[in-house]
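Re: Re: token formats

Sure, here are both.
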Amino acid sequence: MRVWAVGRPGPLAERPLRLVELQRPSPAAGEVLVRVRVCGVCRTDLHLAEGDLPPRRPDTVPGHEVVGEVVATGAGAHRFSPGDRVGIAWLRHTCGTCRWCRSGRENLCERSRYTGWDADGGYAEFAVVPEAFAYRLPDAFTDEQAAPLLCAGIIGYRSLLRARVPAGGTLGIYGFGASAHLTAQVAIAQGAEVHVLTRGEGARQLARELGAASVGDAREAPPVPLDSAIVFAPAGDLVPLALEALDAGGTVACAGIHMSDVPTLDYQRHLFREKTLCSVTSNTRRDGEEFLALAARLGLRPSTTAYPLERADEALAHVAAGDLRGAAVLRVGS
């Protein structure tokens, strides 16, 4: 089967991704084999290719927003049948026994494993996943629409929860890529006033179309004090700006798995008056199930740009440049 694998991580100009042939995987006990139809292109894939996330295995196949069809099941796997449409997301294993798993916070499990990092992902024609970590997908979404829901959407949803937006409150969104454009739709539908701060004109136009109350540059102050903010852009220097934009008692949530260094904070200017700064670490399966149901109920409109599998490196370059409207998606199989 054809796959893209990360050889030696480095700048995209050095072509760390290689299109190669690998043997089709077989499902182990408790796993399902999925014929990949589409796979979303996530900024985490970029971090893996460039080495911001140190590879955990050689020649890893990225991709953790996978939509496909079950074609075979391993011993003891009975949750899905051949022909079922399923989604494969970032989180693919937790121990189930540690204090984090037992308390409903499996996203903090120290023995967690991830698709496209610890195991091969969806930049491939076939992929395997433990059936307990696969998702049934709402019929309301096409394959291409469903793909970004599986990471961009789920992580955005958890970020929104972590940001603690009060009812009818003001939310600032810094950066407006795949995750942010879905999160904004949820927040607006729930009654928040959303202010988008981002650099790309295409992203700004999409934010206006989706109903943002204001759209401006990420390094400008929003027009009103914010109750909450989510920093999606992996730029640590935006964190102090977001904190300054908060009203008293507000919360800034940092949504990325990787971020450049955050500058020194001034206590009085950035944190006083009970402001909160927090991070977001992966998600639980409950987050995923809740978000997918919510996305269908609210009628979210994922904006996608499709690329053939052969152009995965080009799609990743467009994600890096920040010049996409919404999410990039690879078309892999029919």
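Second one below.
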Amino acid sequence: MSDYVGSCLCGTVRFEIDGGFDSFYLCHCRHCQKDTGSAHAANLFSKSAKLTWLAGTESVSSFTLPGTRHNKSFCKRCGSALPGTQIAGLLVVPAGSLDTEISMLPTAHLFSASKAVWDDRLGEVPAFKGLPE
């Protein structure tokens, strides 16, 4: 039995992970902001966990930004972020790609100097359980 399972938005790609995570970082660098379209990326990292693709491997693609180590794996059908192994010896798993709940809190914020201006006061923004009426 695997420790974690995950999938893309359209369900074409499914995967499992055996093992635990060493760290969980929220990265605010400009590269992560651009490739997530949000304030930060939320990625789990492991040097020992094993990734197994269960379905849709033909739909998995990746992009490495030239001149950097910045890499993103994604589903070619829906664009969802997926786990990557492009950095030797390191599994990088987008937290939102997991269908299994994770209990660990983020280890740290990275590149906080690049934080989006609107990210600082999110605690003051109203929260709705669904779409507002």
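Residues 13 and 66 are 26 Å apart (CA to CA). The two ends are 42 Å apart (CA to CA).
- S.
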